[in-house]
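Record 1 of the preview.
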Amino acid sequence: MIKIEIKILDPKAVEVGVPDYATLGSAGMDLRSIEDVKLYAGEHHEFRLGWSMYIGSHEVCGLLVPRSSLGMRGIHLRNVFGIIDSDYQGELIVNLTNNSRHPEPYIIEEGDRIAQLLFVSVRAVNWSPVMEFSHITERGAGGFGSTGVG
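->
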């Protein structure tokens, strides 16, 4: 298990609960709002989480990903997902957009789960310039749809 440092910037972050796994098999840690917000269709809001972290290892990064339960209601991460580099130490922010067509706002209350945080391995690479590839694959340069439909 990797130890990641967390720095509390707002006491509300402790009140609502710092990131945690909902179950033993959860891949993502739940991130919670520290404020109440009415999010109308077409609007977006930056949710400051009230904490920062230091991953430390350049072989790990964080991925900020949406919650499927919000996505089904038209509430999405504004930038689809976010990458948190191992050397970033600023406050984490979840930027949500209401893409629904409902006239009534989507209400997010303090303590609501608004996104998930995954930690994934990162592999550094070195480029090796070549005139031709060392192996030709069956697909080759075939692009969109080249492997069939469906």
